[in-house]
Amino acid sequence: MPTIEPGKGVTVINVYRLDPANWDELVELVKQGIETIRNVPGFVSASIHRSFDSTRLTNYNQWRDEAAAKAARDVPAFVELQQHIQQIAQGDPALYTVEYSVEA
User: Fold this and answer.
1) Residues near 84 by Cβ (< 8 Å), separated by ≥ 6?
2) For the chain, how long is the longest CA-to-CA vector?
3) pLDDT(89) > 60
4) In Å, how far from its chain's centre is CA 2?
5) pTM (2 decimals)?
6) Bridge partner list, 61
7) DSSP-H helix ranges across the chain
8) How far apart are CA 84 and CA 68, in angstroms?
9) Distances from the Cα of 87 to the Cαs of 21, 25, 26, 45, 64, in angstroms?
10) What is the CATH class of 10-96?
11) What is the sign of the dihedral through the CA atoms of 78, 65, 93 and 53?
12) 29-86, pLDDT tens digit by residue?
């Protein structure tokens, strides 16, 4: 399980909006994207989350720092996958820092 702590690392959260009919295809493309960037230095973890109505997929990635997160966006195979993804879903990626985290 990924661990998040305030002030450590960078999180990239991308929420895709899609037609539920495209769910399986989008999951496979996002998984391929994660596999493409997981060896970029600074990668920590990634997870995919599904909304109950299958109209949103959230891709949650943790990185050591902002430079590592930005380097992943420039990997040619990743750029190519993003072009395919944009044909079936509308993404809204952003970089975040952790401000607060609590566990049971």
Assistant:
1) 29
2) 40
3) yes
4) 14
5) 0.90
6) 12, 46
7) 23-37, 66-72, 76-85
8) 23
9) 13, 11, 10, 26, 30
10) alpha beta
11) positive
12) 999 999 999 999 999 999 999 999 999 999 999 999 999 999 999 999 999 999 999 9
Q: For residue 86, report the phi and psi dihedrals to the nearest 5 degrees.
A: -65, -20
Chain position carrying tokens 């990634």: 46
For residue 20, pLDDT over 60 is answered with yes
Q: Using CA atoms, how far apart are residues 101 and 52, in angstroms rounded to an integer?
A: 24
Q: How long a stretch of residues is the chain?
A: 104
CB-based burial label for 3 (10 Å; 0-12, 13-18, 19+): exposed
Residues 90, 17: contact at Cβ < 8 Å? yes
Coil, helix or strand at residue 104:
coil
Give CA–CA dist 26/70, Å, rounded. Answer: 22
Look up residue 102 and give its DSSP letter: -
